[in-house]
Amino acid sequence: MSEHDFEPVRGLPGNLPKGERLIWQGAPDWWPLAQRAFHVRSVSIYFGVLMAWRGVATALEGASPLASIQSGLHVAPIAIAAITLLCGLALLTARTTVYTITSKRVVLRFGVAIPKAINLPFTIIENAALKGFSDKTGDLALTLSAPNKVAYFLLWPHARPWKLARPEPTMRAVADATVVAARLAEALKAAHGERGAILTPVQTPEPAAAPQAALSPA
Hints:
Number of domains: 2
Number of helices: 6
Shape: elongated
Distance between the termini: 43 Å
Strand order of the largest sheet: 7-6-5-9-8
Number of strands: 9
Helix content: 25-40%
């Protein structure tokens, strides 16, 4: 049993009001989340370079090949511990997160130690942007109209990276992201009428990533 067992509706702080309907629910894919939010790949490369550097430095001091390899491998336990910790955090984050899109709002429920739910009515969502990746997952970032704001460190890792001055709540590492983006676009269009969301591709600087897309209710 967990604290979420008492939720009247999974991922929501209360029952849906009359006239509001559930459109989509999902959670981050833990492995893409581990790579992009917890930077497991970068940490692995760092320790790999450190191990190689120690081995080469030992060899240049005149040590035997075996001693050089052993010197580099001294870093391995720390590397394994760090990567295991980051992967564990990513897995726990994915398992305790539920993203919800209804006909009137987006709800982010997350928190490993301290669960919290953030309600984002469509009326305060100024813009939404999809950043897709080659693994078919994507990040859906929501720009809130001023003066609405949610603290970056309250949101993390469910926030668009480096948007500190104006944090953007983000559904991270969502599987089938283009499908989810289309459903969000339809919901925003239905809510805003003439000012509905339009899905348009924009370029992304990452060569390994799929095209970005912008969704705008304005």
